[in-house]
Amino acid sequence: MHMADALVAPAVAATMYVCSGGVAGFSVKKVRLESDPKKIPVMGVMGAFVFAAQMINFTIPGTGSSGHLCGGMMLTALLGPYAAFLTMIGVLLIQCLLFADGGLLALGCNIWNMAFYGCFLGYFLFWRPMMKKGMSRGKIVGASILGCVVTLQLGAFSVALETLASGITDLPFSVFVATMQPIHLVIGLVEGLITAAVLLFVYEARPEMLSCSEERAKSRFSFKKTIAILGIAALVIGGAVSLAASSNPDGLEWSMERLTGSTELENDGTGAHAAAEEIQEKTALLPDYGFKNSDSTFGTSFSGIAGSAVVLIVCVGACYAFRFFKKKKS
Amino acid sequence: MNKLGNALYEIHHMDMLAAKDQWVNRLHPLVKLVLTIVFLTVTMSFQKYDLTGLLRMGIYPIVLFIVGEISFCDSIRRLRIVLPLVCFVGLFNPIFDRQVIGYIGTVPLTAGMLSMVTLMIKGIYSVLAAYLLIATTSIEKICYALRLLHIPAILVTQVLLTYRYVTVLLEEANRMTQAYSLRAPNQKGVHFKVWGTLAGQLLLRSMDRANEVYESMTLRGYRGEFYYTAKEPCKAKDWLYLGVWLALFAVLKVTG
């Protein structure tokens, strides 16, 4: 479906360059916002993969012909629409320069016809809505086939429109469209099946590589969510579950009771031991996990919640301090 | 040689041509890129019946083939990709546009025939122009010129990396398909039962390679952008070369 320069008038080429350039600029901004330096090498290698994979002939059963992988749809499923679009631009530019597949002047048209529809419409119309509520083999096959068929149909229609607008052929628009669309329907179907086969393999082997995958969503660390969950858990455990805490002695106390007959060591009322106990009694806000001079069960709940909060504050504070000193050191 | 092998050969061949120490190769890449785009724009802007104007534009590829000492026969092979679609579109012109505009001997020449020929010449010129650019300028230099034109660094870096790894992954894909074809003789292409496995394996290997590439780049100081060690300014001869061609294109277009 690569358009040659000869099929495009300079005005049409310039218009399509502006359209594709606008989308490319937006994609660059989006990829930059992700601020993931790892993404660029991954995009580069994935571009090379698409290039190589498109040269493998996949036999179509029952026919003597072969099909190829649909780059746009596959990249968008793996990298997301913005990175996929930029990757496809690189692939199309190299194909045009090295293999004369498409032309320099028609590059804007080819980017629009193959990269824009495949990456953006393929993602926002099919891939994301279908994978929103979880992935399955059926959904991957459906999204791949639908995505490839529809985006290729749109691409082929755009080729006809751009050729018509360029005014270089006397072939009636209806005839051109009637020739292009059925051919690309079959091509889209085959490309969709090949893309589905590859994505299914990835889904089985490394599902986290697919965009919108549950695994990828799970792996996203949300600080606010984590703090909220921990806070609720601390409230429930410290406030409610602590009321049902066992009155039986713990392991150490049980051992001591077996040896000495009491769960606590008796002090002789002199020396450092007595002084330390006196300080502890005076400073302890919640002695024996309750309010001072009170047997209320509310004291136990309050102790649980307050203790959890203090532990949380100390831990978070320690983490921030560690990060601060690490940054300072580097 | 299969498709993958052909692609590998083509890339190595173009790399060798671009690395030649010719006068044209030493010109500033920005000048050559701009000239190619201007040439294509001017060529494609000729009316579909303006055969003489179009033929005169042939001076640009002819001069470059001679000065750059580039084989014309090698470039012809590239036409096999472009010409089918151009021919498909052009072949309908004689059918739908039958207005007779002259005679060659006793054979009538229709406007459709003329527009078909101009379309094919445009197709040939566009392929030759791109070929001459890549045969005299490496991808790295073209990317440098793109940066000078303020194309975002992310895009240019991505093109460079894709080009760098195209050969590596083509070789890998070639090895895999060769191993497959040895185990599945008399079979054309890859059987549908292993579509996913074969391409998927290549994909996973590519992803692992991407991670290794990223780690090695990080170890060498990569922080998200490539830096060019020295900026190469346009010299007087580059400006002169650009000026002469632009003036010639303007004359050919105005008098065409």
UniProtKB/TrEMBL annotation, chain A:
- Domain PDGLE span(s) in chain numbering: 224-323
Pfam families assigned: CbiM, PDGLE
UniProt keyword annotations, A-Z: Cell membrane, Membrane, Transmembrane, Transmembrane helix, Transport
Tree of life domain: Bacteria
Q: What is the membrane topology noted in the UniProt record heading this document?
A: Multi-pass membrane protein
Ranges that cross the membrane: 7-28, 40-60, 72-98, 104-126, 138-161, 181-205, 226-246, 302-325
Gene Ontology cellular-component terms for this entry are:
plasma membrane
Checking InterPro entries in the record gives: CbiM/NikMN, PDGLE_dom
Broad class of the protein's primary localization: membrane
Cellular compartment(s): Cell membrane
Q: Name one GO biological process term.
A: transition metal ion transport
- What is the official name of this protein in its record? Energy-coupling factor transporter probable substrate-capture protein NikMN
- The gene for this chain is nikMN
TrEMBL record, chain B:
Recorded GO cellular component terms are: ATP-binding cassette (ABC) transporter complex
The UniProt entry, under Pfam families, shows: CbiQ (PF02361)
Q: Where are the transmembrane segments?
A: 30-47, 53-72, 79-96, 116-134, 146-166
Respond yes or no to whether keyword Cell membrane is given for this record: yes
Q: Record's InterPro entries?
A: ABC/ECF_trnsptr_transmembrane (IPR003339), ECF_CbiQ (IPR012809), ECF_transporter_component (IPR051611)
- Single biological process term from Gene Ontology: cobalt ion transport
State the superkingdom: Bacteria
Compartment(s) where it occurs, according to its Swiss-Prot or TrEMBL record: Cell membrane
Q: How does it sit in the membrane?
A: Multi-pass membrane protein
Q: Which UniProt keywords apply?
A: Cell membrane, Membrane, Transmembrane, Transmembrane helix
Name of this protein: Energy-coupling factor transporter transmembrane protein CbiQ
Species this protein is from = Fusicatenibacter saccharivorans
